[in-house]
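Much of what follows relies on a compact textual record of a protein's fold. An example makes this concrete, so a full record is given next.
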Amino acid sequence: MKSKKPYLPIALVVVVVAALAFASFPPKWFAQPQAPSTSGQQPTTGPQPDVGETVMVPKKSQPTTPAPEKKPEKINPSDIYTLSTTTNLVNVDVLVLDNNGSPLQNLGKKNFQLYDDGVPQAITNFGTGEAPMTICMLVEFTDRWWPYLMVALRYSYAFLEVIHPKDYVAVVSFDLHTQILTDFTQDRSEVRGALDQLRIPGFRESNLYDALAYVQDRMKEVKGRKAIVAVVTGIDTFSKLTYDQCLKIAKASDTPIYPISILEFITIRTDENITTLQAKNALKTIAEYSGGQAYFPRFEQEVPSDYQQIAQQLRMQYSLGFVPTNATKDGQFHKLKIAVVDDQGNPLTIFNQKGKKLKYHIVSRDGYYAPKS
């Protein structure tokens, strides 16, 4: 009698099933940059065992009545960004720029006046000086027209030249969907490797508003000097969010947006139409609402200087903090106004090296959403 062939070992089946289960886990979301641990303890990974009660309880002791469980605070879904419920401190990053876009330095706390809904506020926290950046680069990569792809890639690679060793950078691309190519990293080779993935576009759609909201939501918990550098056309074709909703999110966020237009380079070499004008206006408004600034390079040689200017602004901005005198937790948007003054409280006058009066303007977000009780 012929012997039957042995069945597939059970162990092999288990290995295959385990491998398929492992592959089904989704990629991680944005991770906030963490400083190296100085405690000297080795980090623990994986689930930890429950050590349970460490004190012996007498057999005849009566069980204590558990404290009533605290109900979670209700969150108004219409409020995109609010202050922390544990503190009323409002932080505002401020840029004071001359006509060339260069930041004015050497200003002190006494040179700033801050108003909340027209009421003067005492600045309790003040900081300045060069600091590392945390940047999310958002790249439009669609299958609509190949010149867009070429310009987007060249502009994106140029950003590598302004990254410092201590800067954190994440790369996100979008078409119909938004995709994280690399989480925050200080490794420039990882950033380049993420951009190297942009070779074959998937969809023709350009969901700009959805992509901006996606990134802003994940930048909320990031602290320090942060921004979104968006290499985009400004055209939106299929977003679930409307333009007005996108503006509301940008206005409520504490992350400035710096769009770099890839449409301007092509527009001046073809014809300007209503679509290109609308795209340009959209980028300007989104940047203004977020406390950032839009750039429209007409030649590729302008891009490095634009990036340098963005980096310089972010590294040299002023950080103001105040506790609002109006402590009402109304969940409403409060208007902010910032003025630059001299020692006597008059508008500050600055002269250049030639003794000519220097014009300047202030860039910051124009308000915040208070917490709702």
Notes: Residues 1-27, 32-61, 69-86 have pLDDT under 50 and may be disordered. The two ends are 83 Å apart (CA to CA).
